[in-house]
Prior knowledge:
By secondary structure, this protein is α+β, with helices and mostly antiparallel strands.
Amino acid sequence: MCRWSCEGESFWDNIVITMRTLHVSIRKIGNSHGVVIPKPILGQLGLDPEVGAELTVEHDALVLRRPAGPVRAGWAEAARKVAAAGEDELVMGEFGNADDPELVW
């Protein structure tokens, strides 16, 4: 087995979990089923019950991850701060294209 990556294998296929296996019961919840995740594990993984998690099936395993933030989250506020600080000048300056004089608006 390779340590980081080998032909046909990825890094994630070779991770060794150092905690003991924890047996959980699958419980009926309405028309669905679920498992109870112990609070220390939620804390260790940074999962927040208020925010939820992303669930995927990878090979033969269920994988829970912290949800990805929305694309471009915080960009508008960051742009306002840059503009307020006067640091929003063009890096390359104004330049035109060769055909610009022929454009009709």
